[in-house]
Amino acid sequence: MTPKFINLLVGAVVFLALTFSVSFSENPIYNKEELIDNSATCLDCHEDIGRTLAASPHRVYSDNELPVSVVSGCIGCHDGWETHIEDPSAENIGMPSQEPYTEQAEICGRCHVTPHQAAMTTSDPHNRAQVDCLSCHKIHDNSNNALVIDNTDNYCVTCHTAVKSEFSRRSAHPLESGNIKCMDCHNLGSIEDPVLAVGMNFGCQECHAEISGPFLYEHKVVYNHLTVGGSCLECHQPHGSPNDRLLNQPGDAVCKQCHMTPPGHITEHSGLGTKLACVECHSQIHGSFDNSLFLDPELGTKLFPNCNQSGCHSFAN
Amino acid sequence: MNRKIITAVLMLAMFVINSAKADGGGAVKIGYTFLDEEGNRAVNQSTYNQYEGFDFSLEKFRYSLDNGVRFSADLKRLTLNNRNLYFGAEKSGLFGLRLYNNQYRRVYDYEGNSFIRRHTTSGKIWVYPHQYVKLYGGGSFVGRSGSALQFFNVVNGGLPTAVDYEQKQANVGMQINYRGRMLLAEYGGINYLNNENYYLNQSRRRFKVRGFGPVPRYEWILMHGGFMYYRTWYENKDIEIQSNKGWGGLTVNLPENFSVSYSFIFERTASDSDLVGTDNIAHTVYASHLWPGYAGVTVGYQNDVSDDFENVVKADSYYFSGWIKPDTKLEFRVEHGFRAEKVDEGSRLPGVEDRNRFKVSGRYKDNHYGSMRIRYEGRTRNNDQLSSEVDFNRISFDGNLFVFKYAELSGGYSYSKGDYKNMEERFEFRDHLVYGDLLSHEYYNTHLGLGVMYYRSKRDNDVEKISLRLTGRYHLPNGYYFEVKYNADNFDNFHVTDEYYTANIVEINVSKDLLF
Predict the structure, then answer these.
(1) I need a surface site. Which of A42, A183, B85, B238 has the fewest CB within 10 A?
(2) Yes or no, beta carbons of A194 and B394 under 8 Å apart
(3) Of A94, A125, A149, which closes a domain?
(4) Cα dihedral across residues A9, A11, A12, A13: positive or negative
(5) pTM
(6) 0.90 surpassed by complex ipTM
C-alpha cells in the first residue's frame, strides 16, 4: 500500500466515525426499542454487570440514555427474561455459559451470521469436538478485539498446550515474540478446508514466496497438488522442531526418508573429512528452473575452486 | 511509511480524545533494555529479535466514545527495531479499521553480522453501508532484506547470500448477511518482487465466492458451498499454475440431537511448468450425537482421490472423537484418525502409505482452585515400499493453581519421543520440556514473578535450552509503576562445539496507568 492510500484510508475512517452516529445492525429477534427498554430494566438490579460490558460492543448503560450501538442488550442473550423480571430468581434466567454448545451457537448466531459462525457450526474440527463459543470468547469484563479471551490472538494455546510447547523447541516460528499469530496459518472457521481434505499449500506460500514455486522442475513432494502429494509438511514441522530450520529430521536424514544415496555418490566425498550434505550440491531443493536434479546452477564455479583450495586436488590432476 | 502510520494514529487518537465525551484506559511505558550476549548469535532463536536501547510503549490502550466508536492500540517498543504495533478503530455494525506493523530479525552467523530482517505492515477496513451488507478490504506489505548463510555452506565457501525482496498483497470483498444466510465474494492479489533475482518475480490472483444458509422450508438443513480460482505466474518466465476449486455440503440436524454432515471438494490444478494437471476430489461424511452437557460422539469417513491422469492415488480416512463430562469440573476427550493411501494406477516414489493419529486427554477445572490437564498424543506413518517409519508420541501435563494466598502458579511438562526409520539410517530424539510461572498477587505494593523454561533434546540430538525470567513491579502512587525484568537465556549443542550462547537481558521500566 502506498502512503497516499494509507492517508486516504485513515481519512475515510475519520469521516465515517465523526459523521455517522447510527449503527444499522440490529438484533433480528428484538427490535431496538424492546432491547433498550427491557435491558434498562435489567440494569436496575444488575448495574455492576452492565458496567462489565462498558468496553465491549455489547455495552449497555443504566441511565436510559442508551447508546445507539446497543444491538444485543441483556435480553438478546439471556432468554427467560420475561419471567425473571416478574419473579427474579437464578433458576429462571438463561445463562449462555451453562448451555451446551449448540444452544450457545444459536444464541450468538442470532446476530453474528458470518463465515466463521457458519464454519464453527458445520465443518470446522472444533464443531466435531463440540467446543462452545465461550471457550474462545469472553463476553463480560473483556475489551479485546472480537471479545477473544487473549488479545495476542494466540489464545488457541490455552487449550492446545502441547502445541504451545512446540514453540519452545530449538527452531520454531516466532509466535512467542508476537511476530506471527496462530491465525496467520490456520484458517479458523474456513468452510472450504475441512481438516482431512486435500488442498494446495496456500498457507506457507503467503510468507515464503521465494521457495513456493511453481518451478520448471518441481520437487514433487513440495506441491501437494501432485499425486506424490505431501507438501511442505513432509520435511518441516511448522510449529517447532528439535532440528534446525524446522526440519523433522536433521541433515541428510530428511532426504533419506524417501531417497537412497545414489551409488555414484559413495566416494571419498562421503568420508569423514570431506563429507558433503545432499543440499550442498542440490541446493535448489524446493524446485529449480535449471535442472531436474535441483543442483546449484553455479555449482561448477563454487565447487571446483573449493576442491582446488582444499589441498586435495589441483588443476593438474 | 511506519512513521506516517504512527503519526496518523496518534493524531486521530488526540483528535477524538479532545472532541467527545468518552472513557478508556491503557498504560504508557518508558524504559531501557540492556543486552549482554556471549557465544553464537545464530543458535538461540528466542533472542534473535532482542535489541538494546531506549524503549517507549503504549499498551492495552482503549478509548470508547458515547456514540459507540471504540479505539484500541497496543504499540510495543516503538523506538526499537523489534517494534510490534497495533491500532484499531471500530463501531459495531458500522465500520472497523485495524493496522499492524512488526519487525523480526533472523540471525545466521556466529557474530550476528549476517542476518535478515523481515518487516510486515498490514491493515484491514470494513464498513456496513446497509445492515445486511459488509464491504471490506485489506492489504499488507512484507519486506525482507539482509544476508543469509545457506543451510550448508561448504560449496559457496561460507559467504553470505544477499536477500532482498518485497511482497505486496491486497484484497477487497463484499459479504451479504440476511437472516441466517450469507454470501461472500472476494478478490485479492499478491505481487512479489525479488531485487536479487528478478527471475523469481511473480504475481498471484485469487477470487472466491462462498455462501451458506438453511434450506427454505427445511430450516434444519444447512447448506454451504463455494468456488475459488487461483492463479500464480512469473513475470519473466512463461510459467504459471492455476487452480479451480469448488466445494459444498450440508449439515442435517436430526431429532434427538443427532446430526449428519456431508461435504465435498473438487479441485483441478494445472501447472504449465511440468505440464501436469491434477484433480483432487474428496468426499467427507460425519455423524454426531450429543447428550447435551454430558457427552458427545462423532464418527467420520473421507474418501479422496488424487489423479494426474497418469497416476491415481486413493485414500480412505476414518475418524472418531468423543467427549464426556461426568462432572461439571471433569472432562475427557478422545480422538482417533486413520488414513490409508494406495496407488490405484501408475506409480509414485512413496508408494503405499498409512497414517495414524490418536489423542486422549483429561481435564479437571475448578474456578476456585485452578485446572489440570493431561494429554497423550501419538502419530505413526508407515511406508513399506520406502522402509520408512515415523513413530511420534507425546505426553504432556499442564495446570494452573490458584490455591496460594499470595500467588498463582501455572506450568507444565511435555515429553516427546520421535523415532524415524529411513532406508539407510535412523533418527531418534527424546525431548523434555518443563515450563512454569509463579506470579504473586500485589503485596506491600509489590508484584513478583518467576518464570522458567527448560528444554532438553537427547539421543541423536544433544541440545539444552534454559530460559529464566525474574520480574519485580512496584506500585507507586498516582498509578505509576516501577518494573525490573531480568531474563537469562542459555543454549548448548553438545554435539557442535561452537553452538553455545548465553544472554543476560535486563529491562527497567516506568509505566503509568491511563484512565479516562
Answers:
(1) B238
(2) no
(3) A94
(4) positive
(5) 0.85
(6) no
Task: Identify which of B261, B293, B394 has the shortest CB distance to residue A162.
Answer: B394
Q: For B486-506, write each residue's pLDDT tens digit.
A: 999 999 999 988 899 999 999
- A196 with B282: Cβ contact below 8 A: yes
Please give the residue range of the domain that contains residue A64: 20-94
Contact A122 B181 (CB under 8 A): no
Distance (Å) from the alpha carbon of A195 to chain B's nearest alpha carbon: 10
- What does the pLDDT look like over A227-279, one tens digit per residue? 655 678 889 988 999 998 899 898 888 888 888 887 767 655 554 445 677 88
Cell output for B211? 455462501
**Statement to judge: residues A87 and A129 lie in one domain:** no
Kindly give, in sequence order, each residue whose CB lies less than 8 Å from that of residue A230, ignoring residues fewer than 6 positions away.
Answer: A221, A224, B350
Query: Are residues A38 and A125 both part of a single domain?
Result: no
Instruction: Give yes or no for a contact between A27 and A109, defined as CB atoms under 8 angstroms apart.
Output: no
Enter the C-alpha cell of residue A6: 494509507
Q: Nearest CA to B378 among B355, B398, B362?
A: B355
End-to-end CA distance of chain B: 30
Contact A260, B423 (CB under 8 A): yes
Beta-bridge partner residues of B144: B118, B165
Chosen domain end from A63, A94, A125: A94
Q: Do A24 and B104 count as a contact with CB atoms less than 8 A apart? A: no
**Pick from B468, B466, B462, B465: nearest CA to B497:** B462
